[in-house]
Design brief:
Blueprint (H helix, E strand, L loop, with lengths): L1 E2 L6 H8 L6 E5 L2 H9 L4 E5 L16 H5 L7 E4 L7 H7 L3 E3 L2 H4 L4 H12 L8 E2 L5 E2 L2
Parallel strand pairs: 1-2, 2-3, 3-4, 4-5
Antiparallel strand pairs: 6-7
Length: 141
């Protein structure tokens, strides 16, 4: 489950779903929100929008530097907003372990081909079997 800033609190989501559920939180460009989410039991932290986004063009821009700034929290960092074959590598190099992609896949006529092309662009770090456990470890099989 992903919890945005205007949704139910992360603590409430965690309480209702239990310790084994994957519950992530939107942190925009805020280390304060990231720390609060980590302390409330987040499984991952989502940041962005980093690039121009067709899905949420009104979203405030975020700096890629936030990904490195919050690395000490020890949770997987998700990059969202304008992620496509052109921007994915930049987000990964900045520290994103996970990429949230919408338009670059679902805005294409052949979704499966779009996913394959994105995986090729990202390289060996991309895996369709990437999972997050409750202890926020990324397991790439």
């Amino acid at each position: 489950m992903h919890v945005g800033q205007d949704d139910v609190s992360l603590a409430t989501a965690r309480q209702r779903l239990g310790d084994r559920a994957i519950v992530g939180a939107t942190c925009h460009d805020s280390p304060v929100l990231a720390r609060q989410a980590a302390e409330s039991g987040a499984s991952y932290l989502a940041f962005g929008r980093f690039f121009a986004s067709r899905t949420k063009p009104e979203a405030a821009p975020a700096s890629l530097s936030i990904l490195e700034e919050v690395a000490h929290l020890g949770l997987p960092r998700v990059a969202i907003g304008g992620i496509d074959a052109r921007t994915a590598s930049e987000a990964r190099q900045a520290g994103a372990e996970i990429l949230a992609v919408v338009h670059a896949v679902f805005g294409r006529p052949d979704v499966a081909r779009a996913v394959r092309e994105l995986q090729l662009q990202i390289g060996d770090g991309a895996s369709p079997n990437t999972t997050i456990d409750r202890h926020s470890v990324i397991d790439q099989r």
